[in-house]
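Progress report, Aim 2. The chain analyzed during this reporting quarter is listed below.
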Amino acid sequence: MAVVRAMAAAYFAFRRASERHIRTLGLTAAQFDVIATLGNTDGMTCKELARRTLVTKGTLTGVLDRLERRRLIARQAEKRDRRSIHVRLTRRGEALHSRAFAAHMNYLRPYLRRAVADLDSARLSRALGRFAQAFNEARAGSPGDGQITRRQAR
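Predicted C-alpha cells for the chain:
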C-alpha cells in the first residue's frame, strides 16, 4: 500500500504543477498532450492519437475542435479509408509546439532533476513502464487474470 500511496501522491503533485504551467502557455493539459504528441510527426489518425495520448476518446473530439478553431491543427479524411481522420499540426501549431514543449520541459527539468538525482532515470522509466503495462494488461484481461469482479468486491 505504501508504494501505491507514494505513486498516487507523486502523480497528483506532478499533475498539479504541470497543469499550472501549461495554463500559462494558453493551453489545457489535454490540448498540450495532443500538440506534444503530434509535434515532430507528419500527423496521425484520430485513433492513433487517442491511443498515444492521455486524452480519452470521448474528450478528444472536443479538444480537436478547439485546436482546429485556433488553427493549430488540421483534420482531413484519409485517402484509403475516408472513415478515418488524419490530424496534423499546422504551421501555427508547429510553432506553438516548438515554443510550448521546450518551455514546459525547461519548467519540469528542475523538479525532475531533484526528484531523480540519486536514481538511475532509465531504470525508473522502465519500472514505471512495467507498472503501467501490468495495469493495462490486467484491464484487457479476464477476471481470472487478477482482476476483481464486482461480485468479489462486495
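The CA atoms of residues 33 and 119 lie 26 Å apart. The two ends are 20 Å apart (CA to CA). These observations will guide the mutagenesis work planned for the next reporting period.
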